[in-house]
Amino acid sequence: MLSSxxxxxxxxxxxxxxxxxxxxxxxVEDVIKREVERAEIAKNETVLEIGPGLGVLTDELxxxxxxxxxxxxDPRIVKILKNEYNWDNVEIxxxxxxxxxxxxFDRIVSNLPYQIxxxxxxKFLKYNFKRAVLIYQLEFAERxxxxxxxxxxxxxxxxxxxxxxxxxxxxxxxxxxxxxxxVDSAVVILEPKTKLEQIPLNEDLVKALFQHRRxxxxxxxxxxxxxxNLSKEEFKKVKTLFDxxxxxxxxxxxxxxxxxxxxxxxxxxxxxxx
Length: 274
Ligand SMILES: C[S@@+](CC[C@H](N)C(=O)[O-])C[C@H]1O[C@@H](n2cnc3c(N)ncnc32)[C@H](O)[C@@H]1O
Fold this sequence. Notes:
This protein is α/β, with parallel strands linked by helices. Helix content is 36%, strand content 18%.
C-alpha cells in the first residue's frame, strides 16, 4: 500500500516533514493515478514536476513519459530520491522552482507546495506547454476558476483566465495527505490559450481595480490612482476622465476580462496608462 510505503520511508530516513516547504505527501494511490491519467501524456513527451517529495507521483510519471524533470528544493529529499529510485528517464534538479529556468517540457504534473501557488502558476504561464494538472489548496483553486460576480472572483481569476483555460476537476480531502494539512485541496487542469485567444492585461490596472473589488469601477480607480503611477497633481487634473471609463458603474467584481480590457484601452487613449 502506498501509505505504508510513505510511512516506512519517513521512518527509514527519520524525515521530519517541513511545513514551511509544504511537505504534505500524497498517500492515496487512486488520486495519483487519476492525476497522471488526466495529464494525457504521450510516450514521446517531456513532463515537468515541481516538488517530487518522496517520489510516488514522479514514479508514475516516469512510466508514461519519455523524460521527467523534477525540481526539489529540500536537499534531504533529493538524497532520499537518489537512494531509493533507479529511474533512467528522470532528472532531479535541486533548487528553488521559482528561481531555476525550466527546461523545455510538454506537460506539467505536480502536487504543488501551496506557499508558492501564485508565483509558480504565473511562471508556468510564461512557458509554452500543452496542459498542466496541478493540485492546489481548494480555496486557491476556487479563486482561479471564479467567474465575474462570484464571491471568489479576484485578481487571480482575471490574470489566470486571461492567459489560460482552467477547470477544477476534483476536490481532495485532507485525509489523502500525510501529514494531514489544515485545508482541503483540489485538482486543476490548466491549458494555455493560443496567442490569439489570450487577452494581455496591464497588471497594474488589474491590481488597482481589485484593490477595491466591491466599489464601482470608476470609484475604485479614483481611489487607487497612485497605482497607475499618477501623482496627486496629475490625478487632480484628469479626475473627471475616470467618470467616463467604460463600465464605470459596474462593481469591480462584476467586470469580465474583456470589459477590463476596454477600460485599459480607454485609459491608454487618454494617456492615463503607459
Ligand atoms: C506538497 S509536497 C508534494 C510531494 C509529492 N509530489 C507528493 O505528491 O507526495 C511539495 C514538495 O515541494 C517541495 N518544494 C517546496 N517548495 C519548493 C520550491 N520552491 N521549489 C521546489 N520544490 C519545492 C517540497 O520540499 C515538497 O517535496
